[in-house]
Structure formats: C-alpha cells, structure tokens
Amino acid sequence: MGHLDHTAFGVLTPALSYLMAVIGAALGLRCTVRALGTTGRSRRNWLLTAASAIGTGIWTMHFVAMLGFAVRGTDIRYDVPLTILSLLVAMLVVGAGVFCVGYGKDRRRALLVGGLSTGVGVASMHYLGMAALRLHGTVEYDPLLVALSVVIAVVAATAALWAALNIKSPLAVAVASLVMGAAVSSMHYTGMFAVRVDVAPAAGGLPGASAMQFIFPLAVGLGSYLFVTAAFVALSPTASERAAYPTAGGATSTRTANIPV
Asked: Which band of pLDDT confidence, cut at 50, 70 and 90, is reported for residue 246?
C-alpha cells in the first residue's frame, strides 16, 4: 500500500484550489443572475459564460489540488487526452444544468434536474481526471466514500443553482460562492480519501505528462481566463444600468435645451 500525500506543498495547493473554486462559483452565479435578467441572445451568451466559468473553476480546483498529490514509491503522470476530456465534461454538464435553470418553466423541476445532472457530471469529471493518472501500481476506491463524494457534488450543484435563482445582491453571491467553494473542495478531498494505491515498483518510465509539464501551465491559463472574465463581467453594465442610460441622456438633453442663451 503506497503512502498518499494530499498536501505535498503544504497548505498552498488546498488554499489555491479553494480560491479557484470560489472565483469560478462567484463568476458563474453572477453571470446566471445577469442571464435571468435578460432574454434572447443575451441570455444565451450569459449562460454560456456562466457554464464556462463554473466548469473551468471546478476543473482548475481539482487539478490545482492534484499538484499537491504524491504517492510514495512512484512518480505520477497524466494522460493528456483524458485530462482534456475531463475539462470538456465539466463544461458540458455544468452548461446543461445552467441552461436547464435558465430556460426551465417549472423552477423547482429545473432546479432538481439541473442539480442532479450537474452534480453527477462534476463527480464524473473528478473520476475521469483520476482515471488519467499514470503510476507504478494499481488504484482502487472505497465505494462508500465514492458514493458520499457524489452526494456532496449533487448537493453542492443544487445549492449553487438555487443560489443563482434566488440570490441577487453581490454580498449574498459572495457568501454563496464561499460556501460553494467549500462544498466543491469537500467533494474533491472526499473522493481523494477514497483512493487506495498498491505500488508496484518498476524500472520503466511512465506514459503521459508530468503535472508541471502539463497540468500547471493549463491551470495557470484557465485561472487567467477566470480573472479576465471576472473583470469583464464586473465592468459590463447591468440591464438596469443600460436602461438608465437613455434616461440620463434625455435628462441631459433637456437640461441643455433649457439653459438660457
């Protein structure tokens, strides 16, 4: 049985991964709130941004945390196609849940279906990412802890979508994002504690890319995407602000017209 270390770099990777989850959740919730206040193409675009933000945040959280994962007695590599597939799965399933809420007529049913599909999808992303691991040995899982991690994922996803439907103020979104980040992190580490590795030392090299060769640059790139998108969303006017522009412009014109010459 190999000794598993989930914090090879100390608290750095857990803290940074939690931050990524919080940023993704905050951005996704904010975009969903903006989407529900619009219609047509604008709603679709906001929902797409929300799905990409939450999906990217969850995936980045997972693999930033994996940077701190080590197994005594073996190196670790990652299968690149499977890792990329896990990112696509994260975005697609979160997108399905977000669009279900954004366009669902029956809010309660949309919330339940969206939360279930998103939660199962997040768990699938996690275990697909784990399937991308390449090491000298075999990986096994505790089925009870795996089931618990899936339940946590479903509850977290449902809570996030509920927050998107019911929470409007920036402060409430911030609090909901902190809770969502904690739930996603809990799901991740519950799934990681389910892992058992039987190390079988071998002289040959491992296929795939190392974390620093592939995971780290990709995580940095996706993290940068989250920050840039967050800045764009923060600077873009809301629907109420856009609606106020013509009024402000009209008032300005009226005041100008009434100035005596």
From this structure: low
